[in-house]
Specification:
By secondary structure, the chain is an alpha/beta fold. It is built from twelve helices and eight strands. The protein is globular, with a radius of gyration of 21 Å.
């Protein structure tokens, strides 16, 4: 509460200073300093929000799942973005957190299928927004690991600036898969899938493109698919997240090949894994044209996969993640596809079973 009050005071102060700037340009430096301080405070507030939501996980799914949060490692930071390549520890593996969910009541003497579940959002994080989906997966007997890959929010400014969209964050997701296989005897390494929506859908696609032997199946919902076209229809603030000096450092116009390398639609020849894609024509975040480009690329490369383009489905970008009957019916399709390859012990077969698993 104290930090929140400080942010409000700082915002009011900046407002007054900005208004006064027209009369007194000399205070411009003070305004810049205050804005920087406010940004730093926002990172502190994100950490508080994350801590609260971590507790909320136990309230939302603790009755059906054992919950853990582990601290593991992915590859070192992209050395091309390092300001001081000779600094101590600059080549060390990047440490990141990952949530683990294990169904209560499982037989420790058996093995179960694993799902890697990367979250969406540029600088997003895995929150209880997904609680109902985790409950549905627990009911079926899936083990789940959800990586808070580099650049996620809730872990401070330095971690936030380690973002590597479509790059090493994908390797963090794969590292979380490897952690589970190496450390949990209850994981069946021959039954591993990956699923995600939006940015998480993009990570899921790139993970199976880059590591086809590690995954038996993939679901990509409304996936970011073509960063080049995305930069074209998004605004300057969004584009700045990528061209920042701690990130890619250049715009798509300045380095088109780098943006292509990080776009699933330009890498469709790599697909070897069973894949289901969902998109929605009224998506207000990932324009359907991106996913259509991905689908056309997969077809042109002669790849076998499944997809469905939903027509103006209620919910827009979140159409199959919300709590409507339509969303539940669509999630049942997703689970049916995943279950074909992963064979969980208790597959959900009806919307009524989804209701019982997630909402009662």
């Amino acid at each position: 509460m104290k930090k929140f009050s400080l942010i409000l005071i700082a915002l009011l102060t900046v407002s007054v200073f900005t208004h006064s700037q027209n009369q007194n340009p000399a205070i411009e430096d003070e305004v810049k300093t205050l804005k920087s301080d406010i940004q730093d405070l926002s990172f502190d507030l994100d950490q508080v929000r994350k801590a609260v939501d971590d507790i909320y996980w136990y309230n939302r799914v603790g009755d059906v799942a054992f919950i853990d949060k582990v601290y593991i490692t992915g590859p070192p930071v992209n050395q091309e973005t390092v300001k001081n390549p000779t600094a101590m520890g600059v080549k060390n593996p990047v440490k990141f957190y990952a949530y683990i969910f294990i169904p209560r009541g499982i037989d420790a003497g058996k093995q179960y299928p694993l799902l890697v579940f990367p979250h969406g959002g540029v600088h997003g994080d895995f929150t209880t927004y997904y609680a109902h989906i985790i409950r549905e997966l627990m009911a079926q007997g899936y083990l789940v690991i959800a990586p808070e890959y580099r650049g996620s929010s809730g872990y401070g400014k330095s971690y936030w600036e380690r973002i590597d969209y479509g790059g090493l964050e994908v390797e963090d997701a794969d590292a979380s898969r490897n952690y589970m296989v190496e450390n949990y005897d209850i994981v069946d390494k021959n039954r591993v899938g990956i699923l995600g929506w939006s940015h998480g859908g993009m990570i899921s696609l790139l993970a199976v493109f880059n590591h086809p032997d590690n995954y038996n199946v993939c679901f990509a919902g409304v996936p970011v698919s073509d960063l080049i076209s995305r930069m074209g229809y998004q605004d300057d603030d969004y584009r700045a997240l990528y061209s920042a000096d701690y990130h890619l450092g250049k715009t798509a116009q300045e380095n088109v090949e780098e943006y292509k390398k990080r776009s699933p639609a330009w890498n469709t020849s790599k697909l070897k894994t069973p894949l289901l894609i969902h998109t929605n024509t009224n998506d207000d975040d990932v324009n359907v044209l991106e996913v259509e480009h991905l689908i056309k690329g997969l077809k042109a490369d002669g790849k076998k996969f499944e997809y469905e383009i939903f027509q103006d489905a209620e919910g827009g970008h979140s159409f199959d993640r919300i709590d409507t009957r339509t969303a539940k019916t669509i999630r049942l399709k997703i689970y049916t596809f995943l279950n074909t390859y992963l064979h969980p012990p208790k597959p959900l077969k009806t919307v009524g079973e989804i209701d019982k698993a997630a909402y009662r």
